[in-house]
Amino acid sequence: MLREYQSLKDFPFSAVMSIYEETNRKTGKSRYPDELPERQVALAEGELYNYLRDVFFSQPGAKYYLWLVGDRPVSALRIEPYRDGFLVSAMETAPESRSHGYAKALLQAVIHGMVPVLLYSHIHHRNAASIAVHTACGFRKIRDCAVTLDGTFTSKMGTYFLEIQ
After folding, report:
1. CB contact at 8 A, 90 and 130
2. What are the extents of the domains in the chain?
3. What element of type H or E holds 122?
């Protein structure tokens, strides 16, 4: 089942962190190498919370989507303003919930509920699972590089595009 959030009010932050556990572990380790692993994760989660509070949810049109099985979030993604449309970002599925089609179901449900708009997504070249999900949902690769939200250029990601009519 799809859930949409436009603010931190009622957003199940702690439950959603189980989806991003691997990412937060990697982020914490790279940004806080001198901290204990538990503290690294806590600091990474704190950064994400502050970003959502101070930046993400303050943008008009920004939405966080969750795919739930029962009451448990299993997959998540964000939609935020980008250039002449919106950017799909932070799409991830909890490790124990992968290979069940949840990311595809989530992305399809989000796309189905949108009015005509241009959607972009930046996907790491080695992320075959995400590329497959986006392609199955109608995205096509338009560039072998990406310009991120902060304006940084990277050749590690490709830019994918979908026009919703």
Report:
1. no
2. 2-164
3. strand 117-124
Tell me which fold the domain 2-164 belongs to. Answer: Aminopeptidase (3.40.630)
- Would you place residue 54 in the very low, low, confident or very high pLDDT band (cuts 50, 70, 90)? very high
Q: Where are the alpha helices (DSSP H) in the chain?
A: 13-17, 21-31, 37-54, 102-112, 128-136
Count the Cβ atoms, other than its own, within 10 Å of residue 96: 8
Rounded CA separation 162/164 (Å): 6
CA angle, corner 126, sides to 37 and 141, nearest 5? 130
The pLDDT confidence band at residue 121, using thresholds 50, 70 and 90, is: very high
Enter the tokens of residue 20. 């991003």
State the angle between helix axes of 21-31 and 37-54 in degrees (0 to 180), rounded to the nearest 10: 100
> What phi and psi, each to the nearest 5 degrees, are found at residue 67?
-105, 125
